[in-house]
Sequence to fold (910 residues):
Amino acid sequence: MQVARDISFGPFRFDLADECLWRGTHAISLRPKAFSVLKLLVEHPGRLVTTQRVLDTVWPGTFVGDAVLKDNIRQLRDALDDDAKSPRYIETAHRRGYRFIAKLSESLPSNSPSAEPQSPVHFAPKLVAPASSATSFRVVGRESDLAKMHGWLNRASAGERQTVFVTGEPGIGKTSVVEAFLEEATRVPGIRVVRGQCLEHYGAGEAYLPILEGFSRLCRSAGGAEVLDLLRQHAPAWLAQMRSSVSQTESDSLPSRAVGSTRERMLREMADAIDLLSSQWPLLLVLEDLHWSDYSTLDLVSYLARRRDHARLMVIGTYRPVDVILGDHPLKGVKRELQAHRLCHELALEYLDEDVIAEYLATKFPSNQFPARFRRMLYRRTEGNPLFMVNLVDYLIDQKVIVEEQGTWELRVELTEVDEGVPSNIRELIEKQIERLTSEERTALEAASIAGMECSSVAIAAGVEMPLEWVDKQCGGLARHQFLSPAWLAQLPDGTVTARHRFNHILYLEVAYRLIPAMRRSQIHQRIAERGVAIYGNRSSEIAAELAMHFEQSRDWPRALRHLLQAAENAIARSAHHEAANLAGRGVEILKFVPESAERDKQEMRLRMMLTVSLMAIKGFASAEAEEINARGRELFWRYGPSPELFYMLWTLNLYRQFSGEMHSSLEIAYQIMQLAEDLKDDALIMQAHRALGAVLVLLGRCGEALEHIEKGTALCAAHQNHGYSVFVVLDSKVMFECFAALALLALGRLDQSAGRLSAGLELARELGHPQTLVVAQHVAAQIHQIRGEAALAYELAKQATDLAEEYGLELWRAYGIIEMGWAEAELGNLQAGIEQMQRGLALHEAMGSKLRSPYFLGLLADQLAKAGRVEEGLATISKAITITEQTGERYSLAQLDRIRSELLMQAAE
Fold:
């Protein structure tokens, strides 16, 4: 039987068994609800507990205002003698919630039969001790940097998540410091490392590339089965992007588990999985060369850093500051925001000074007889750049300038001669090192630099058209020359077992790549791409971005286009819309090199579909740029007659028209959609067409007609298990039909039927767990309760929708929720605060360029302005609402607007 523990903080002891708070031998009286609030906070030490979570936990199923909670917090502060302005125990996070900030310890109750005298078990054990010295002469002079890293790891081990950026110029030792740190940190059993590399060739194109790479490797390592099980349960949308990590049978079923994925779902799933992975032992997430990162990876870094829950997580990112600044990379803004909120650390590596160079020489060459001028020459030539210094010393050894004679190291030539022969920079030095390779090693190095930072012998062999045995031999030589790390084995999708290799530094790859003549480089890219297609076969979509890059570089434009399209679809499936827009944009640029043909037009159509969807996601459904791209796509589609692609181009145009407030145009397009779906004889498309017609007819106030289409679409839903999800139709159709039916039936006066359909829609939305669908259902429910005058229920549902919208970044629906909450708050008696909240929400709504629902929301505001006696403002607001109704044709709320105007006119006449 589990025994309840006592929790101690300061002079207080919290007895969970007897539900009592003690100060020494004195029992402190607390109301039951105050005790429950304190218990909830103490169970989540250091974490933000939101106001809504406290209300849901302590007052479940009851509508309670913030004032009740504040009263209980006030009683707790009185009992703990705590100051709200300088808290020692309970900290207020303004407008968000509360956090228990005191250090806790726990022990068995003194009266427990199983209790034994023991020291308290602290909640924050120190798992890793700071390193006493660098683990290798390669990182000499970095002892203080490593000590800082271990200090941050100790904090992470205690549950205080850490984000660390290791920065510096090329060759300054970022990778060496990180590797030395990992070598020391992983001596603690249980610590896991997820390590990924951002690549210049891919840039912003491959969404989550280093994350997927790192987790795929972790799943293949010892203990990988446990990680796979966790991803299956908590991050199915991610596992769907890692199909090579599972069996073929499971791989075939994975795409359906990612249906309805959003950017927010992807972020939340991985953050939850990482938190669970780090619940017992620290997890180190290492992302190298973030200056080449995609947008989505940076989104995840920011999301993980901003999470308030405790996690034994340390995120380490390396990057070159100059590349970030000159390239105007989004990492600059991400880091600035995190620094502003003190959510990250920067370890800016400095160049080594002359004393450290002397220490390096003494460590690498014991008993040397180098003159003091030698270290000064090294310092002057390398300016303290560690990679340059280490490679220069190795170069001098290879040149027999530094030699060992009878156990003593010395210079064989005069120092002035050494100085004159030294390369002027690190890239020139690497070039000289490449020149010293055999011709066979140089050939293998060329292909490896084209294959990537981490590459297989199979890819290198394809690039140079040589057997695997030859490649492995040359790569062994490159490892001895320190260009590559020692090889390890991996299995490719076609069953081939191959050695894999990794460059020891990105500069080796960069210099080797740039030395290859353009024509030869193009040929090697082509061969590697063709071999990749052959190896992956029908799974080549998994490496579409990589194949697209190789075919682009080889100028094989048709195949580059084919794989760019697949890569863009992959990105949209991950809700990585910045990356999808980048990939589709590259495809549009390539089109100019492809001769005109029917196949070329079809590729352009698909590219424009991808661009339209991505730009709408990035810039909003009312994006003029997206509509312009959509127009060119539609022109092409009409040229080739009916197709599902044309259907979805019209579908997105219909959304654009609705959010731009062009309801009559939206209706015309919805009829075109229906005609197209019927011509195609596709029931799934016909169902979606009924949905488009039902939605716009409800908005136009033609609810009887709308209901006919809603019922026909509902009947077709039964034949489609996923209710019509696609890349273009995000919300669940069955739920949307129920919600539209509830609105239409309410307008027709069939209140009981409306309530039944609303209840069914909400229940299904909760079962599905799809955030966007649930948010929309909650918003519709809030609107219906508002129309029925049920303010408390309207507030509860609007609050749920707003919280969910904020969590998942659904800004438009967050604005809707703020307006509806403001109306309910005003209706429940807090008139002024409610009006101010509504005005704030309307400002957000207008800032997004959307006119959809504007008349309804302005009517709500005018209604409350009337109750506040602000008649002139109310009349101006209702006049604006009716004008927009006339302009847009959105008439669903017209009767309500007329009533409010009449009431305001009567007030004005009094």
